[in-house]
Amino acid sequence: MSRALFIALVGCLITIHQTRLVNRCDLAKLLQQEEMDGFEGYSLSDWLCLAFVESDFNTSKVNENADGSFDYGIFQINSHYWCNDHQSHSENICHLECQELLNPNLLSTIHCARKIVSGTGGMKNWVAWKMHCSGRPLSHWMTGCRLG
User: Helix 44-55 to helix 24-33 angle, to the nearest 10 degrees?
Assistant: First the structure.
């Protein structure tokens, strides 16, 4: 019995160790530095809401989809269209390896997200943003963030 508990505890610790969470206000600061506020008409609050509903601010999140493609990183960018994961067919529109979308510095992720929102559909390319963020008051996402 104690061996099973030990194995379960180690499993939880490994899972916690692999998760890389970004602070909401730190993300807002980085997005502002990368000139994402107002880009294609989307506010920093839109980007923060997207990061929350897609990954709960987890830069290391990977999700497998029913079609065999994968979503990567804080914005859950899909391998079928945007990056190459060498596991599924990809159009690789962002011209990058999907693993780069897991980098905690987020620059590759932000540059790819710029391409996504610049195209047809904008942020509506993310179903979770469309369902949980679009048309809703989002100013609370910036509460307490001092961007200077």
Answer: 130
